[in-house]
Design goal:
It is a single chain. By secondary structure, the chain is of the alpha+beta class. The chain is globular, with a radius of gyration of 17 Å. It has a five-stranded antiparallel beta sheet, covered by helices on one side. It contains four helices and five strands. It starts with a helix and ends with a helix. The protein has a single domain, classed as HIT-like (HIT family, subunit A, 2-Layer Sandwich). The protein binds adenosine monophosphate and zinc ion (ZN). Zinc ion (ZN) binds at residues 12, 15, 17-18, 57, 108.
């Protein structure tokens, strides 16, 4: 077992993904290791939509240790390649919601991997043209808070 899995926070009672990770609630798994499980989404956006979930309970991206995050994207790469091959699909989205306003319904950190066959399948709305008078200030608010 990896260091992060050993030292991560305890399972949260009532958290559905903690219960899935512990095997107390069934899931259709596509992958598991010491730090992550991946299983099919019960309400898929498209056929083949699955989730990559940390075994340990973290709610938001900012709470996940960097060492764990460093393993998450290579895993997403590996599983996406398997999914593309297995499903005969060429396109996919990785989505990760943080907070209720962003559409996060389950407060346990996870990545969505969503195969795409047609861009009309999920309504990713095009953005509005940027307000060029505000854009430099918005960017400065981000840069000024880099640590
Ligand atoms: P989010 O809105 O980013 O928190 O996404 C939560 C996702 O978890 C949704 O796509 C749900 O369909 C999915 N989900 C919730 N409960 C389960 C479950 N028991 N098994 C598989 N997927 C689930
Ligand atoms: Zn949890």
């Amino acid at each position: 077992m990896s260091k992060d899995a050993q030292t991560g926070p305890a399972a949260v009672p009532g958290c559905i993904f903690c219960q899935i990770a512990a095997g107390r609630i069934p899931s259709i798994r596509v992958y598991e290791d010491d730090d992550f499980i991946a299983f099919m989404d019960i309400a898929p956006q498209t056929e083949g939509h699955f989730l990559i979930v940390s075994r340990a309970h973290y709610e938001l991206l900012g709470q996940v240790p960097d060492a764990l995050l460093a393993r998450a994207l290579p895993l997403a790469k590996k599983l996406s390649q398997a999914a593309l091959r297995g499903l005969g699909v060429e396109a996919f989205n990785i989505i990760q919601n943080n907070g209720e306003a962003a559409g996060q319904a389950v407060g346990h950190w996870h990545l969505h991997l969503i195969p795409r066959r047609d861009k009309s399948e999920i309504p990713l709305k095009p953005g509005k043209p940027a307000d060029l008078t505000r854009l430099p200030f918005v960017a400065e608010n981000i840069r000024a808070n880099l640590k």
